[in-house]
Amino acid sequence: MPRNPDMIRIQHMLDAALEACSFIRNKTQQDLKENRQLLLSLIKEIEMIGEAANKLTLVFRKKYASVPWNIIIATRNRLIHGYFDIDVEIVWNTIQDQLPILIGQLKSILKKIS
Fold first, then answer.
1. Structure pTM?
2. What confidence tier does 43 reach under pLDDT thresholds 50, 70, 90?
3. pLDDT of residue 1
4. Residues 57, 62, 63: CA angle, nearest 5 degrees
């Protein structure tokens, strides 16, 4: 039986969020400022989270309205289209402060739908 496309996208989001958090483990914001490869890797993970969120069905997003889908998608769009003006501090804070919350939400959703 085929898996639910929304469930697959939630898993992709969770995988990308966990990966981003692992990239900054034992790192500082200064490390991020000095390591362009790390910064670009983190940006890519955030973009993937936003892209997967954007592909979720509207019904699914409404069902789990406590997740800030529009902010997640807007963040992706900002990174893609504003690539020339990315604030390292915002990237750092997003991963440090927001991704752990999102990871908890995504794990909870997966538990409910699997």
1. 0.94
2. very high
3. 44
4. 95
